[in-house]
UniProtKB/TrEMBL annotation:
Descriptive protein name: 3-methyl-2-oxobutanoate hydroxymethyltransferase
Species of provenance: Leekyejoonella antrihumi
Enzyme Commission number, as recorded: 2.1.2.11
Name of the coding gene: panB
Binding residue positions for Mg(2+): D68, D107, E139
Predominant location: cytoplasm
Length: 289
C-alpha cells in the first residue's frame, strides 16, 4: 500500500522521513473495506467537539462517530432519545472541521428517519450538507433495508447498527444483551439486510461474542463491536468512557485508558486554592503599565 492510498489509521506511525512528512489522505470507506479483506483491525471513537476531534485525529483514529450519545455525554439528558438534528449538526461540523484525516460518521437521531425512507434521506442530506459529515449511521433491523437503499442510492454512505439499539431501549426492556440463542439468527439477518441494502459497515452492540463473530464471518463489510467481543473487524467506545472522564460504574465492555475525571478535578481544585489563597494571578500572569 502506498503512502498516497494508505488509510490514516493503518499501521504504526511512520518515521520522520521526507516521505512520511507528506499529508496523509482522509480515511475512506474503500480503505475500511480493504482492511477487512486483509484482516486488519481499526478503532473508532465518538467525538463531539473541536479539541477531542483534533486529539483523536492526531492519535490516528481513522473513524470518528458524532453519536446521539451526545445526549448523555454532552447535553446532560438521561438517554439519547431527546437529541435533535439541530443539536447534532453543529457538533458534526465541529468534528469534521477539526479532524482532516478521519472519516466522520453522523448519527441520525431518534425520530428523524423512522417515519419513511424519504424522511431519512432528507435528514441524511442535512448532515452531509450542513454538518459536512462523510457518512451517516442509523439503527434497526431488516425493516430498515428500503431506507438504507434509498440513502445509499443518493450517494450517502450508511453505517448500520444492530443488536442493542439505544433508540429502542424502551421496546427492548432497557439495556439488555441482545442476540442470545435463537435471537442470533435475527441478528445475522438484520446485519445481512444492511449489507444487501448497501451499508458500508455495521455496528454490533451488546451481543454475545460468538454471535458477533458469526456475523463478522458472514459479512463482506466490516463490523464494529461495542460490547460484542474481540472478533469484530473494529471496535468503538464513547470517548468519555474510554478516557475516564465520566465517573461511576462503567459498562462491562468499557476499558478506561486514563483518569481524566481525576486529572481535571485535581486541576480545578488547585486553581480554586490558588485564587482563594491569592497566589493566582501572580506577577508573571499580569500586565505592567
Amino acid at each position: 500500500m502506498t503512502e498516497e492510498t494508505a488509510p490514516y489509521g493503518s499501521g504504526a506511525p511512520a518515521a520522520a522521513t521526507a516521505s512520511s512528512a507528506r499529508p496523509r489522505r482522509r480515511t475512506r470507506i474503500t480503505h475500511l473495506q480493504r482492511m477487512k479483506e486483509r484482516g486488519e483491525r481499526w478503532a473508532m471513537l465518538t467525538a463531539y467537539d473541536q479539541y477531542a476531534a483534533e486529539i483523536f485525529n492526531e492519535a490516528r483514529i481513522p473513524v470518528l462517530l458524532v453519536g446521539d450519545s451526545a445526549g448523555n455525554n454532552v447535553f446532560g439528558y438521561e438517554t439519547t432519545l431527546p437529541v435533535t438534528v439541530d443539536e447534532l449538526i453543529p457538533l458534526v461540523r465541529a468534528v469534521t472541521s477539526s479532524a482532516p484525516q478521519a472519516l466522520v460518521v453522523a448519527d441520525l437521531p431518534f425520530g428523524s428517519y423512522q417515519g419513511s425512507p424519504e424522511q431519512a434521506l432528507g435528514t441524511a442530506v442535512r448532515f452531509m450538507k450542513e454538518g459536512r459529515a462523510h457518512a451517516v449511521k442509523l439503527e434497526g433491523g431488516t425493516e430498515m433495508a428500503p431506507t438504507v437503499r434509498l440513502i445509499t442510492q443518493a450517494g450517502i454512505p450508511v453505517m448500520g447498527h444492530v443488536g442493542f439499539t439505544p433508540q429502542s431501549e424502551h421496546a427492548l426492556g432497557g439495556y439488555r444483551v441482545q442476540g442470545r440463542a435463537e435471537a442470533g439468527d435475527e441478528l445475522l439477518a438484520a446485519a445481512q439486510a444492511f449489507e444487501d441494502a448497501g451499508a458500508f459497515s455495521v455496528v454490533i452492540e451488546m451481543v454475545p461474542a460468538p454471535a458477533a463473530a458469526r456475523v463478522t464471518q458472514a459479512l463482506r463489510i466490516p463490523t464494529v463491536g461495542i460490547g460484542a467481543g474481540p472478533d469484530c473487524d473494529a471496535q468503538v467506545l464513547v470517548w468519555q468512557d474510554m478516557a475516564g472522564l465520566r465517573s461511576g460504574k462503567a459498562p462491562r465492555f468499557v476499558k478506561r485508558y486514563a483518569d481524566l475525571h481525576g486529572a481535571l478535578l485535581g486541576a480545578a481544585q488547585a486553581y480554586r486554592a490558588d485564587v482563594e489563597g491569592g497566589t493566582f494571578p501572580a506577577t508573571e500572569h499580569s500586565f505592567e503599565s
